Amino acid sequence: MSEKTGKPNPPTASLDDNDGFVGTETRVTKIAGIAKIAAPSDACLVQIYGPEIGKRYPIEGAELTVGRDFGNGIVVDLDNVSRRHCRFTSRDGKVFLADLGSTNGSYLNDEEVLQEMVLRSGDLVKVGGAIFKFLYGGNIEALYYEEIYRMTIVDGLTQISNKRYFLEFLEREMARCHRYGRALSLLMFDIDHFKLINDEHGHLAGDHILCELAAVIKSRVRREECFARYGGEEFAVVLPESGPDKSRVFAEKVVKLVADHGFMFEGRRIPVTISIGVADMAADLTEPSSFIKAADAQLYRAKREGRNRVCG
């Protein structure tokens, strides 16, 4: 991939429908030797999205670079990562991040890194198709294992619940619904013509839209509900005790919210709509798979009837 100048694109990476990293083979990511000087104690990076998910990189030297070339401290061999992409610098007990003129840019908590920025524990650093979480504190082992657990229930790209957590949540709520006769609704939805968006604007734009859509909808979901990425561009919302009428009102509001939102990428507005299928708990629905199938059937009906709508 040639290095070129210009405004960086938001860094993202594509997932397949099973939340796996797309590629013909697992890329090799390794840490080169770094002199242990002038570094804060107990600081590390954990890859939470990308080819080496879960791997920890201790920050042990005054400077640590990330890029495709094997001369970097952290090597991430992805097409949307530059040869020398960004640099972490340790001084005065702090860690700073700087972009090295990369093609696709470096991002700190979704903010483009235009000048050197100081890191705080919990910050997310996006480098092309990889995302790292910065951890810094006295009990770094506890922080690391806490993050590893979090990765089992949170989607690395969108930072909402993942498929595993969704299935566990749905099964638990279905059991409660059967036991106490409570209402339960399930929404399954995806982005209309998402393949066309990827084809016309590129996969970086597509993944940017996935993240922004998740952020827009997440603000409307209550703590006792579950909003998850089911796979690819498909999402799910579980609404305990909402009832058929309330769940459909909620679905209609979400469809309008997405259609009215101004999704932007590289200064261009990309129209985005979604289709939603709604299903309600019934006595014959005893497994999460059957509940999902019922909601999916309504989702496909919404697609057939013209998209950008709610069915069910």
Fold blueprint:
Elements: E1 43-49, E2 56-58, E3 63-67, E4 74-75, E5 86-91, E6 94-99, E7 106-108, E8 111-112, E9 117-118, E10 124-127, E11 130-136, H1 140-151, H2 163-180, E12 184-191, H3 194-201, H4 203-218, E13 226-231, E14 234-240, H5 243-260, E15 264-265, E16 268-269, E17 274-280, H6 288-304, E18 310-311
Helix pairs in contact: 3-4
Distance between the termini: 47 Å
Order of helices and strands: EEEEEEEEEEEHHEHHEEHEEEHE
Biggest sheet strand line-up? 2-1-11-10-7-8
Biggest pleated sheet: 6 strands, antiparallel
Describe this structure in words.
The protein is an alpha+beta fold and 312 residues long. It contains six helices and 18 strands. The strands form four sheets. The chain has a six-stranded antiparallel β-sheet, covered by helices on one side. Strands 4-3-5-6-9 form a five-stranded mixed β-sheet, with no helix packed on it. Strand 13 (226-231) and strand 14 (234-240) form a beta hairpin. The chain is globular, with a radius of gyration of 21 Å. It starts with 42 loop residues before the first strand and ends with a strand. Residues 1-39 have low confidence and may be disordered.
